[in-house]
Amino acid sequence: MTPRAAVVWTPEFLRYDLGGEHPLDPVRLDLTMRLATGLGVLEGVEPLVPEQAPDEEIQRVHVPPYLAAVKSAPDAPFEVGHGLGTEDNPVFFGMHEASALVCGGSLLAAREIAEGRADRAVNIAGGLHHAMADHASGFCVYNDCAVAISWLLDHGFDRIAYIDVDVHHGDGVQAAFYSDPRVLTISLHQHPMTLWPGTGWPGEYGEGKGAGYAVNLPLPPGTADGAWLRAFHAVVPSLITAFRPQILVTQCGVDTHVEDPLANLGLSVDGHRAIYRELRQLAEHAAGGKWLALGGGGYGLFRVVPRSWTHLVSTVLDRDVEPHRPLPAGWVAHAAALTGQRLPTEMTDGREIGYEPWTEGSDRVDTAVLETRRAVFPLHGLDPDDPRD
């Protein structure tokens, strides 16, 4: 039986626009939906249109004075504080409304699953994982990931696994649930010595009752598809199986791509497609088939994000797009009118994807894996030195 799946989308998501030459350009969302439509991925699918999340829902993870600052910021952009008005998080007109709509999208996706209308749901506009309780951070005003997880905790779920595959550490979500054993947060990211925000070390494993429920796997610059998947399989499935989540929430940033201008990992669109298939399988085998997929970072606006996230949407819908599928001529013409970059012609980067199962080796990725396993595996009754665990 094909799982029921929902897509959350509205063109109003494009209003989350930090302006000017800011790298988080909403054109990436528009191009993704145009590509998914052009390839027939969304044929017969009626996207769910969200409403703005009310203040009380946003305040699950953000303090009231911060919401007040966000609302007033457009009228006093140089006086607000709270991480607003910076180069990373410039103030823009309608900032609260646009940010609340992204939260509303992730809440709607979560509600579809919790209330039994869907087994899977995807919101590519979501994944704003850096926002903290009292300040904006890393292009993120409100943390829709944490808001949705908090809502799920109050609506029938008490074991939620959050997996973050963005190139940057999922610090805001980790912070929101750092002492909560009901939420297992796992972040695979570029090593904090080499990339903002400088957090996400293996020793950040939670506190109090939440000790062992924050997992960080920092990867060295240059890590490519096979090594990334090797690290993923060495850490994630064992922990997810031990935790037995009722739902999988994933932040699917694609700034891990080798062409991304803001980071230094070496993945391909083919690697991203493989990751989504692994996440789908993990949800099916370990989380009762329930999967909430969110977007995230990704700054290859024309060549990378639309293809990678079209693969994400198609994977959620069980309408997998073959790698060598040509891009629709109409989409290419539209995108070409917006950029001077040479555009790809297929849904692949031409990479063959495979990996060798982890053993305690001597390269940098294996060392990173072992550090993470030794930090958290014993807290879950797993042997960090045994590749079978």
Taken as a percent bin, the fraction of beta residues is 5-15%
Helical fraction equals: 25-40%
Sheet with the most strands: spatial strand order: 1-2-7-6-3-4-5
Overall pLDDT level: 96
Count of helical segments? 11
Give the low-confidence spans. none
Which class of secondary structure composition applies to the elements? alpha/beta
Terminal residue distance: 31 Å
N-to-C SSE series?
EHHHHEHEHEEHEHEHHH
Strand count? 7
Which term fits the overall shape? globular
Tell me about the biggest sheet? 7 strands, parallel
Oligomer: single chain
What's the Cα radius of gyration? 19 Å
Family: Belongs to the histone deacetylase family.
Protein name: Acetoin utilization protein AcuC
Domain Histone deacetylase: 22-315
InterPro entries: AcuC (IPR003085), HDACs (IPR000286), His_deacetylse_dom (IPR023801), His_deacetylse_dom_sf (IPR037138), Ureohydrolase_dom_sf (IPR023696)
How would you characterize this protein structure?
InterPro entries: AcuC, HDACs, His_deacetylse_dom, His_deacetylse_dom_sf, Ureohydrolase_dom_sf. Residues 22-315 form the Histone deacetylase domain. This is Acetoin utilization protein AcuC. The structure is a single chain. The chain is of the alpha/beta class and 389 residues long. Helices cover 34% and strands 9% of the residues. It is built from eleven helices and seven strands. Strands 1-2-7-6-3-4-5 form a seven-stranded parallel β-sheet, sandwiched between helices. The radius of gyration is 19 Å and the shape is globular. The two termini are 31 Å apart. The relative contact order is 0.14. The model has no long low-confidence stretch (mean pLDDT 96).
